[in-house]
Amino acid sequence: MVRTVFLLIVSLALLGTPLLQGCAVNPVTGQRQFVLFTEGQEIQMGREADRDITASLGEYDDPELQAWLDDMGQRMAAISERPDLPWTFRILDDPTINAFALPGGYIYITRGILAHMNSDAELAGVVGHEIGHVTARHGVTRVSRAQLAQVGLGLGMVLAPELRPFGEAAGAGLQLLFLRNSREAEREADDLGLGYMSAGDYDPRAVARVFEMLGRASGAEDGDRIPGFLSTHPDPLERRDRILEQTTGDDPIYRGSRDDRAGFLQRLDGMVFGTNPREGYFRDGAFFHPEMAFRMDFPQEWRTANARTEVQGVSPQQDAVVLIGLVDEASPSAARQAFLAGQGITTVSRSDERLNDLPAASADFRVEGDGSSFRGRVVFVRHGDLTFRLLGYATQASWSAREASVGRSLASFRAVTDPAVLNVQPRRIEIVRTEGEMTLEGFLQRHPSTVDAQTVGVMNGFRSGDVIPAGTPMKRIVGEGPPRD
Ligand SMILES: [Zn+2]
User: Fold this and answer.
1) 3-class DSSP state for residue 105?
2) Distance between CA 474 and CA 467 in Å, rounded?
């Protein structure tokens, strides 16, 4: 949960309107294909989804690194079949290993995948692949199919629409991310991407190492770094072999030689690694937010997630929800008034008691919707210069069973003064050079990390027993990060 970001609901306006169907010529293949959008609509769709994604996932706060990625991306896009799109390249503040593209030229690289790259050429391979999805209009045909099939997917914990009586549906932009590209589309993007690498004279053989890394990472992930890139990109090792085969031929487009480990790693020095606990973390079923200095307990056994714009908990039976969010109103009672005035909401009771010594205004309410009805409690509480909305609700039928645990959860919100919570820091990447020739084990001993050996090996591109040459720049992970459960 990030204080500056309020929930931004962006619906893809186009998705709700009658569709303009038609054929368009694919810019890459020259063949006609069935798409539902003009290029202008494609760009508009991308722009709206971009707003959604940037608000929900957040950009990584390093303008220099962002500008460097943009420069790399723009040079590659300029030699593509669609140089005139409003190409936009962003690093997302997300620890998962992922990269993706949206229609219209919006490309995203997570800091999680950056942490696993070991040269500019490797990154260029990822960027080129994503540019390939855009130039070949994979997203557009994907969305077209999705619309026809009425596909509805959620972002992990983002709540199912039937559990969302308050209009905070996940933006449709996020849903696009979970649509798979076909195998053929992946191959096509691989091929196009290798070609675009010539724009920076990047060595296309570096891309084989990316697939090698993805293959290894998929076996070594911990819970908060699920390899999303893999889930949409089948069979990394087969693709590695295909790329190696392709790039050993005589095609001049594959003659790039740039593959700079040292210069690239220097750019990653100090980058946040893994979950950033400054933005909130869970421990023993409680949520702690160091920046906003509060904690709140969630009911036992509930699934929880920190979704940046709000913190969410869902009962195991999926019939009750607890949400922590922020509202604009400075006064809890004004915020309550605005909430209770919402469509379909009926007030059951109100209370103006303070909550753990903080100014608060709460209410029990009922929601009658088409076919579904809910009972719930809302507490608006003022803490620091923020007004929090603590919202718990359940289906009408489940409320009597869930009311007590939901109520206890909302009532547990309190200020935190413990310096151990307030001063928690994320793990970071530190770049060091091997003093002499050493094995990976020797490196780990000499330059210990606060993550496991396997992770350090994968992120540096070395395996157990490998001999690392003297003077090789290497990543290690320093800092304790979020307290463990
Ligand atoms: Zn892909």
Assistant:
1) coil
2) 13
Of 97, 121, 119, 110, residue with least CA distance to 56: 110
C-alpha 243 to ligand 1 mean position (Å): 14
Ligand 1 center–CA 28 separation, angstroms: 16
The 3-state DSSP class for residue 53 equals helix
Q: Which two tokens stand for residue 219?
A: 């076996």
Distance CA 164, CA 113 (A): 32
Claim: this prediction has a pTM higher than 0.85: no
Q: What is the distance in A from the centroid of ligand 1 to the CA of 130?
A: 6
- From the CA of 421, how far away is ligand 1's center (Å)? 39
Cα–ligand 1 centroid distance for 132 (angstroms): 8
Q: Where are the alpha helices (DSSP H) in 412-468?
A: 419-422, 440-446, 453-460
| pLDDT over 80 (residue 454) | yes
Question: What local confidence, expressed as pLDDT, does residue 342 receive?
Answer: 86
CB 362 within 8 A of CB 351: yes
Tell which residue, 280, 298, 276, has the closest CA to residue 288.
280
> Which residue is associated with the tokens 């909430």?
339
CA of 227 to the centre of ligand 1 (A): 13
How remote is the CA of residue 185 from the centroid of ligand 1, in Å? 7
Provide the β-strand partners of residue 358.
355
Give dist(CA 130, CA 107) in Å, integer. Answer: 7
Q: How far away, in angstroms, is 138 Cα from ligand 1 center?
A: 9
Rg (CA), the chain: 24
Compute, in angstroms, the gap from residue 133 CA to the centroid of ligand 1. Answer: 7
Three-class SS of residue 383? strand
Q: What confidence score (pLDDT) does residue 83 get? A: 97
**How far is the C-alpha of 461 from the C-alpha of 308, rounded, in Å?**
31
